User: Fold this.
Amino acid sequence: MASIGDIPIKVEGEPAAPVAYGNALPVLSQVRHALAQLIQGGEPTQIDLGAMPFGPGDEERLMTLLGSGEVTASVDALGPTRIQETAFSGVWVVEYLNTDGQRVALHLEVDHAPRLLRSQPADLSDALAALDARLSAPDANPAPGD
Amino acid sequence: MVTASPHRPDGRPAPARQATLGESLRRNGVSRRGFLKFCAATASMMALPPSMAPAIAAALESARRPSVIWLSFQECTGCTESLTRSFSPTVENLILDTISLDYHHTLQAAAGDAAEHAREAAMHANAGEYLVVVDGSLPGPGANPGYSTIAGISNYDMLMETVADAAAVIAVGSCAAFGGLPKASPNPSGAVAVQDLVKDKPVINVSGCPPLPMVITGVLAQYLTFGKLPELDQYNRPLAFFGQSIHDRCYRRPFYDKGLFAETFDDEGAKKGWCLYRLGCKGPMTYNACATMKWNGGTSWPVEAGAPCLGCSEPDFWDAGGFYDALSVPPGNSGDMLLAAGAAGVAVGAGVGLLARSQAKGAAKQHQTVTAEELEQKL
Ligand code: SF4
Ligand code: SF4
Assistant:
């Protein structure tokens, strides 16, 4: 099937200069407030960027303002999730994609580490049980010299 | 968690215990991280803050599939198209996989008697617990039932019979919610909305022509997650999605506030992305989630594409005057004062909304028509 990008489009006339809609800066103030909260009381914040009234270019502007930091991670569960630390420590961009690579949500997380990166508590006990099973299996403890 | 007893009070056997959503997702190989991701995306879909994701996870873990009977009456199938063409397969399809869609005559293979038996079986097995989703309006009790029938049953009879044992009714689309196009003047088929007929069950209106797919699934997800119906506005629409006007969430709003308006569809203002108020934008009187949730998988929405909002989620929008007539310029009336008020901006925003509503009513009475020449002039 042809993708939407294959549809030929001809732009007539001069393209207008990009417009700044001014919706990025207020989000940055919200992030600043959340970071102060994390430092003072240890309380994390998630911001749903999909709920922001962004105009064309607003998201890119916000991402430019946030920059990128040292950590990039990808989680492969129910489609990929891309995680990027911003230039501001403790501020993370989390982009959830579905199995077709389409975005299903875009969040900012202000936390020591994004929620999705941490091991899930219920998985820890499953892991312990799996390790026990591994250790008690006959071929898990080969006799010396084997 | 209350578990179903093997028999109901009336002696009929209770439905077999179904797997919870958590169980069925894990059986399908969805990891706990995957589930957390699903809940984060579901929170966005329900217009809830992302911090609700753990609460959603806990609730969904033990949620069971509600049975849904979907009735389509006088409609164009646009609402079903909107839902089934949605662009987020993992999230919305999972929600849809999670409900038990027992009857939808556009999507099901069966037809005629066989289909009607499926509907009756679902009603019987889930009495008092199933949801009825309706798209389309229907000829009222006083109208000729022949305008719309299914398997020889009039829409009116089918609706009343099906809702009798339902937990709630969700009217999807402006036709089911408010009558929509079939009810537009002169309403030849005597069309009425679902809420005009169903008085003894909760009716939730998910309006829009069509509604945003995320809003349809969001309402279903909310019922599935919390087992209760959402908070509603004066038109019985869920506040989470219809609580704010298009105008209040519009990214072009700063231009409205500064009095910068496009006057034609190709002038300098249009190219610079200025406010579309004078080109007929009904954003100030329209309550819907388009400005943030957007269309086509969050790609864009009408105002972002340079087209004014038509007000499709409001009652009687077909009869509310010309789509390209500015709200503040009623025909035969000098709109100067109101235009000035529009330019003055934010302080009058609410007033403009109210005024627009009364104008829409006036327009409906006059039933203005627009000629191709008039449209040409505007374009
Ligand atoms: S009038 Fe329409 S285009 Fe202008 S700010 Fe309001 S919703 Fe946006
Ligand atoms: S922008 Fe307005 S007319 Fe368009 S879909 Fe949204 S509510 Fe309906």
Notes: The pocket of iron/sulfur cluster (ligand 2) is lined by residues B 208, 246, 286, 288, 290, 301-302, 309-313 (CB under 6 Å). The first helix of chain B runs from residue 21 to 27.
